[in-house]
Amino acid sequence: MSHNPQESSFRWVMLGLVWLLYFSFGITMASIAPLTVPIIDDLDMTYSQMGFVLGAWQLIYIVTAYPIGVLIDKIGTRKSLLIGVFLIWLSLILRGLVSDFSGLFLSVTIFGFGGPIISIGAPKVISLWFIGNERGFAAGLYSTGPVVGASLALATAASLVVPLTGSWRGISLIYGIVVMATIIMWLLFAKEAENDSKYETTSTIHILKNLINIRNVQVMLVLAIATFLLNHGLNNWLPTLLQEKSMTIAQAGFWTAIATMAGVLGSVIIPSIARQGYRVIALGIIFLIASLTTFGLTIFTDMPLFIVLIVSGIVRAPMMPILTLILMETKGVGSANIGAAVGLFFAAAEIGGFGGPFLLGILRDFSGSMNTGLIFLSVCVGLLVVILPMIKEEDQ
Q: Domains of the chain by range and CATH?
């Protein structure tokens, strides 16, 4: 059954369901980060190997994102997102069964096939079910899903799941139940929007060429790489950084969760305020603050450190929804090609998504401290301000 998104109040149900999918994405994505030390000890791994594992699904993402985006445009969101959340569940379950580095790496790579379906399909759903100023609010709201999911994993993995199950492997059981509940909810309630699975028979290569020739798309690809380098690098290694500042594993997970939850405020408020015509300015402010707070993590302790953590979470979380809003409203993209465009965006983004955790792991092994990697990230994100004037919002 089709529903006209401009007339049906069911769009809010779809927004809630997409939020649950992205919540499942977040809880699975962050399930390893707060337990890196016990996993390294249990599986006899190095920090570089753990960095490779933390970036494994992003590495797969680079290859899968664009073709998955085209596929979503062709088969519709209901079927494709169901496949995506099932693969996320499978990745989560297999993590608890591994016995070495190779097994953990392979289980995490499965997430690289399911994850892009969710992160690409979610903007597609928003573009189909919402119009006008509602899009900014909806994009900000659904993007809190992975933040809340990741925060829950960060806060409970070491303090609740491990004591409850007796092992870090308990994340597969406890969080697996949550993801399975999401699969059932999607099966029961998700609907297709009007024209969801209707598409033009334009070749994939032709669509790709058209998208790459759009200047806003070109700039978005560069920004995607750098912002994901920052976010994925910092998100995956922040608990380890805090442990190096003399926190226990439970304390590090708790404060990382607090900082991540602070991102909910940024995700809901900032995209709504940064309306068309003001998004470049908003991004410039966000990048500058993100650069300063990332550097601040290397020098502060106690209360100043906690303040920096929270501010960092607030400004980093809305980066992706603002960038995808610009992409969504760029002339030549639109709802018809948003899956392909966002797929291209994430294919580029996950170069940084893989590189962030991997480079920080290497720099940690090389220097003996997380600070070297944080300084590198701070410089990278600060330099993004230079290319922001290339974005043409009036073309959207």
A: 2-395 (1.20.1250.20)
For residue 74, what are its two tokens? 């062709």
DSSP H/E element including 1: none
Is 356 exposed, middle or buried (CB count within 10 Å of its CB: 0-12, 13-18, 19+)? buried
Q: CB neighbours of 61 closer than 8 A, spacing ≥ 6?
A: 112, 115, 116, 346, 347, 349, 350, 353, 354
3-state secondary structure of 363: helix
How far apart are the C-alpha atoms of 367 and 376, rounded to whole Å?
13
pLDDT in tens, 209-245: 888 888 888 999 999 999 999 998 988 888 888 988 8
Distance CA 260, CA 196 (A): 33
For 29-49, b where at least 16 C-beta lie within 10 A, e where not — what string?
Answer: bbbbbbbbbebbebbebebeb
At CA 385, angle to CA 383 and CA 390, rounded to 5? 120
DSSP state of 157: I
Smallest CA-to-CA distance from 91 within 115, 110, 67 is with 110
**261-284 confidence digits (pLDDT tens):** 888 888 888 887 877 778 889 999
Measured CA to CA, the distance from residue 332 to residue 95 in angstroms comes to 41
Q: How many other CB atoms sit within 10 Å of the CB of residue 57?
A: 28
Structure tokens at 205: 């290569």
Give ∠ CA 280-284-287 in degrees, rounded to 5.
130
pTM of the shown model: 0.75
Alpha-helical (H) ranges within the chain are 11-29, 36-43, 47-54, 56-75, 77-95, 101-129, 134-142, 144-156, 162-165, 170-189, 204-212, 215-244, 249-273, 279-299, 302-316, 319-328, 334-367, 371-382
Q: 24: closest CA among 134, 117, 139?
A: 117
For residue 67, count CB atoms less than 10 angstroms from its CB and return exposed for 0-12, middle for 13-18, buried for 19 or more: middle
Q: Which residues of the chain have pLDDT under 70?
A: 1-7, 132-133, 194-204, 334-336, 394-396
- Distant-in-sequence, close-in-space partners of 184: CB < 8 Å, separation ≥ 6: none
